[in-house]
């Protein structure tokens, strides 16, 4: 039961021990925290009210955008789950752990995975959202990922049997690939990536395979900045400007407009200082032309996010996306002190540690009042999952891919030999995680209904998007 969770001493990486010794160390931890314990979930005494957590996490967000946040979350239990990372983080703090910590994604759900281009223009499959990244128990990422597949499967009206199988495949794929990574050197793990074209070729559904191959071809040919420029901008004299499309894209006004007018150049220059010298030289060829607020995602709605347009002297554009960097929802739920006081730096460094290749313009900045941001390219050949067209067999294949990508990320920041030793080679771990995912999906639905009730009682504001 959640209220009976025992405190487990953290197990640290031992650089002197052999792979075999570290594997055996992992296996020995099972005696303290058996794999079967990971199936457990039930609500517990003094569990935090999910609506109160949502209200708390809305503090400090742009007031006018908060209704859009709740409007998006009320669409389904799945959209609610995407915006409820803080609720699950508080719950995971009451679940069994092995004591093995590493860098976590923090908001590890199936929509935060996908394809994108590396700086070398190779298309890879990986995790692509790290707003909540923080060190913590490795189990938390895989439990959130597995639960997301059950919740998404129910949203697609798949059977409970199918949904449980999706979660099982997440954990089984994680187990198998972690074992593979445990046999590699640290450098080999660092070089490892998941080729998107090869991953799609492994699929068994001809129609989905052809659909995704066309998307890859389009993404490879897609000159993102030029295409976005034609679609999103107009000229005001000699200056290029971003088109307003309220309420989702708009230019700031009031105090925010004054802040940007006074500090925009300082914020941009601080961002440049976070980049390596070669990227600073590259971006010195461009000038900042315009900046607009852009509402993104579900969990990020209401935080200060937007796009900036840079132009070279000869008219070539670059769009950068800036996102406000707040404290990770994991921070107050783990007994680990964060290394970075700058929240933008925390996200960037966590992303670089976990991703096989990160955006070449990834950097961080802040204003004079220490509102933190991180910055990256707006789009770079991104290929997102399209859940609406997936059949159960496609969802199962996608679950395997996400489990693989998470294993690769954890193998970089943790000890794959220790993890593999703990998980073992039986089905016990996958069985436990899939059981947990079903139980937590029930909890998520219950919390979703509490949110709907709060909206009906006007405790949470909603608005229709245009």
Plain-language structure description:
This protein is an alpha+beta fold. It folds into two domains: 17-221 and 386-456, no CATH class; 224-377, no CATH class. It contains 17 helices and twelve strands. It has helices at residues 19-29, 50-58, 66-73, 77-82, 85-92, 138-155, 160-182, 186-191, 196-201, 206-221, 224-232, 254-273, 277-283, 343-354, 392-413, 416-423, 428-456, and strands at residues 101-104, 113-117, 123-127, 134-137, 233-236, 239-242, 249-250, 286-294, 305-312, 317-324, 363-366, 372-377. Strands 7-8-9-10-12-11 form a six-stranded antiparallel β-sheet, with helices on both faces. Strands 1-4 form a two-stranded antiparallel sheet. Helix 6 runs antiparallel to helix 15. It is globular, with a radius of gyration of 22 Å. The mean pLDDT is 90. It comes from Flavobacterium potami. This is DUF2252 domain-containing protein.
**Number of discrete domains:** 2
Strand tally: 12
Integer-rounded radius of gyration: 22 Å
Q: Please tally the helical runs, counting DSSP H or I stretches of 4 or more residues.
A: 17
Runs in which pLDDT lies below 50 for 5 or more consecutive residues are none
Protein name: DUF2252 domain-containing protein
InterPro entries: DUF2252
Organism: Flavobacterium potami
How is this fold's topology laid out?
Elements: H1 19-29, H2 50-58, H3 66-73, H4 77-82, H5 85-92, E1 101-104, E2 113-117, E3 123-127, E4 134-137, H6 138-155, H7 160-182, H8 186-191, H9 196-201, H10 206-221, H11 224-232, E5 233-236, E6 239-242, E7 249-250, H12 254-273, H13 277-283, E8 286-294, E9 305-312, E10 317-324, H14 343-354, E11 363-366, E12 372-377, H15 392-413, H16 416-423, H17 428-456
């Amino acid at each position: 039961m959640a209220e009976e969770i025992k405190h487990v001493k953290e197990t640290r990486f031992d650089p002197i021990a052999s792979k075999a010794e570290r594997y055996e160390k992992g296996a020995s931890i099972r005696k303290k925290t058996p794999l079967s314990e990971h199936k457990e979930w039930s609500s517990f005494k003094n569990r935090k009210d999910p609506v109160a957590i949502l209200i708390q996490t809305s503090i400090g967000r742009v007031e006018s955008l908060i209704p859009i946040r709740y409007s998006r979350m009320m669409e389904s239990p799945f959209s609610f789950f995407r915006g409820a990372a803080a609720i699950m983080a508080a719950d995971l703090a009451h679940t069994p752990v092995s004591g093995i910590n590493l860098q976590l994604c923090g908001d590890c759900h199936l929509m935060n995975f996908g394809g994108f281009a590396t700086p070398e223009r190779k298309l890879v499959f990986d995790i692509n959202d790290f707003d909540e990244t923080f060190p913590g128990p490795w189990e938390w990422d895989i439990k959130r990922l597995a639960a997301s597949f059950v919740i998404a499967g129910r949203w697609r009206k798949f059977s409970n049997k199918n949904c449980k199988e999706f979660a099982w495949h997440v954990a089984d794929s994680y187990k198998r690939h972690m074992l593979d990574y445990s046999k590699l050197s640290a450098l080999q793990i660092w070089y490892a990536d998941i080729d998107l074209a090869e991953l799609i070729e492994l699929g068994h559904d001809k129609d989905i395979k052809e659909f995704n191959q066309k998307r890859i071809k389009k993404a490879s040919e897609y000159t993102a900045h030029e295409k976005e420029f034609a679609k999103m901008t107009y000229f005001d004299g000699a200056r290029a400007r971003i088109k307003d499309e309220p309420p989702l894209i708009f230019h700031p006004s009031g105090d925010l407009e004054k802040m940007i007018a006074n500090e925009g150049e300082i914020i941009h220059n601080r961002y440049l200082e976070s980049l390596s010298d070669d990227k600073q030289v590259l971006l010195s060829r461009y000038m900042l032309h315009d900046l607009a607020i852009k509402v993104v995602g579900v969990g990020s709605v209401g935080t200060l996010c937007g796009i900036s347009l840079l132009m070279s002297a000869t008219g070539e554009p670059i769009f950068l996306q800036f996102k406000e960097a707040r404290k990770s929802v994991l921070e107050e739920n783990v007994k680990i002190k964060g290394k970075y006081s700058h929240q933008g730096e925390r996200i960037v460094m966590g992303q670089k540690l976990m991703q096989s290749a990160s955006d070449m313009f990834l950097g961080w900045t802040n204003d004079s009042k220490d509102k933190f941001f991180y910055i990256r390219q707006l789009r770079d050949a991104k290929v997102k999952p399209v859940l609406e067209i997936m059949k159960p067999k496609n969802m199962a294949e996608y679950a395997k891919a996400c489990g693989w990508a998470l294993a690769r990320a954890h193998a970089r920041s943790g000890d794959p030999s220790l993890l593999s030793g703990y998980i073992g080679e039986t089905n016990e771990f996958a069985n436990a995680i899939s059981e947990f995912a079903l139980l937590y999906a029930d909890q998520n639905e219950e919390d979703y209904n509490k949110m709907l009730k709060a909206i009906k009682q006007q405790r949470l504001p909603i608005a229709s998007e245009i």
